[in-house]
Specification:
With 405 residues, this protein is an alpha/beta fold. It has three domains: 173 residues, FAD/NAD(P)-binding domain; 125 residues, FAD/NAD(P)-binding domain; 78 residues, FAD/NAD-linked reductase, C-terminal dimerisation domain (Enolase-like, domain 1, 2-Layer Sandwich). The chain has ten helices and 26 strands. Helix 1 packs parallel to helix 8. Bound molecules: flavin-adenine dinucleotide.
Length: 405
């Protein structure tokens, strides 16, 4: 019998790995060390339906406790791994116990960047959003008529803005960069998403940073912005990115670079230790990247399961992502980093469109806004190595589906 597998982190990646391993008939002993108190659950609804109070925690949980019992998976909830002794293959836990492993998988995710205390980050009324407890606190604060400042125009900030408007709050969103979504999308996509938020009454200010948040008796009262405005506010939502939870690996002498560096099999330099999901930095083509998505968490977790069950296939990411804002669904296929040209194609209905990313004439990504067909066609093409020319995408008379053959 193969020795014990210990998985650290009961999020999307850790769960995907153990579920697939059991589905493949692998019966080795498994212990899941999960820092949170809840059974493993999915995060995407936390900035969408869950925040809107349209969904409850029981719907986010992947499997009931009985499933773990039936699958002979030992669950250690509310327990953190604190140190790895690689020579002894032993993990220390916050409970004071140790766990011996034959294989260790780190699936520790990421932590939102907090606003420094010197800028008002510790005031009452300042929120970040990563787990369900964060979402519960924020949902309680999001009362109609309240004034919210959202700091950061990435997906979390934009989704929170949409929910806040939906709940009847006044919303100002500031983005320090020249445009929202600058890190992850082309200007054409930023334009479409900006137009959406402006049409819903968000006061959206790009190229605008935060000087500081100010409070009274520890309670948030106002924000001073870099454009000179002093804005009275009741709550602030900080969406300024995340830091990978890679300290365990780093302290054990493994390579990290805002993420745990792994190879195409998700293995670290220690053959007994893997890293998957948001905490891993992995090869993608010629680049080393960290992918913060359900797609990567699930696919990389399942790829490691297949490897542990006797497979040999490396993991090739096929990135896709989605974001829900108001009644708009943004779907993204591929990875647009390094593009040198985009083509915007109007969609079938008002408010729908797609942005096609090319590098040296080859399609590398598609952002589809309320345009499921463009998403499906683009994704299939990217995954099968087919590419339309930019001119074909630009030709409104051409049905792109025809190019799939
Ligand atoms: P996580 O799900 O973060 O799980 C890591 C777990 O490890 C956490 O529970 C953490 O507490 C635990 N942990 C950390 N350190 C330790 C330790 N030392 N010991 C024990 N446990 C530890 N992706 C999409 O594709 N589409 C979306 O629309 C989308 N929306 C999102 C909305 C929100 C609000 C958030 C926060 C994320 C969203 N994502 C979305 C991203 C997606 O949820 C993540 O990419 C995914 O959860 C990553 O899975 P993971 O298992 O790597 O990390």
């Amino acid at each position: 019998m193969t020795g014990r597998l210990v998985v650290v982190g009961g999020g999307q990646a850790g769960f995907a790995l153990i579920a697939r391993l059991r589905a493949l008939g692998d019966r080795r002993a498994i212990t899941l060390v999960a820092g949170e108190a809840s059974l493993p659950y999915q995060r995407p609804p936390l900035s969408k339906k869950y925040l809107l109070r349209d969904m409850t925690l029981d719907r986010l949980i992947y499997r009931p406790e009985s499933w773990y019992r039936d699958q002979a998976i030992e669950l250690r909830l509310s327990t953190r791994a604190t140190a790895i002794d690689r020579a002894a293959r032993r993990l220390s836990l916050s409970s004071g116990e140790t766990l011996d492993y034959e294989t260790l998988v780190l699936a520790t995710g990421a932590t939102p960047r907090h606003l420094p205390e010197s800028l008002g980050g510790a005031l009452d009324g300042v929120y970040t959003l990563r787990d369900f407890a964060d979402a519960d606190r924020l949902a309680d604060a999001m009362q109609p008529g309240k004034r919210a400042l959202i700091i950061g125009g990435g997906y979390i900030g934009l989704e929170a803005a949409a929910v806040a408007r939906g709940l009847g709050l006044e919303v100002t969103l500031i983005e320090m960069a020249d445009r929202i979504l600058q890190r992850v999308a082309a200007p054409a996509t930023s334009d479409l998403v900006r137009a959406l938020h402006l049409s819903r009454g968000v006061d959206l200010r790009e190229g605008t940073g935060l000087r500081e948040l100010v409070g009274e008796e520890g309670r948030l009262r106002a924000a001073h912005l870099s454009d000179g405005t002093e804005l009275p506010i009741d709550l602030a939502i900080v969406g300024i990115g995340v830091t990978a939870n890679d300290a365990l690996a780093r302290e054990a002498g493994l390579a990290t670079a805002n993420g745990i560096v792994v190879d195409r099999h998700a293995r670290t330099a220690d053959p007994a230790i893997f890293a998957i999901g948001d905490c891993a930095v992995l090869p993608y083509g010629e680049m080393m990247v960290r992918l913060e998505s359900v797609q990567n968490a699930v696919d990389q977790g399942e790829a490691v399961a297949a490897l542990l069950a006797g497979g040999t296939e490396p993991y090739h990411p096929k990135p896709w992502f989605w974001s829900d804002q108001y009644d708009t669904k943004l779907q993204i296929a591929g990875f647009g980093l390094g593009h040198d040209r985009t083509v915007t194609r109007p969609g079938p209905r008002p408010g729908s469109a797609s942005v096609w990313y090319f590098r040296e004439g080859t399609l590398i990504a598609v952002d589809a806004i309320n345009d499921a067909k463009a998403y499906v066609v683009g994704k299939k093409m990217i995954e099968s190595g087919l590419s339309p020319t930019p001119e074909q995408v630009d030709d409104q008379t051409l049905d792109l589906k025809a190019l799939l053959g």
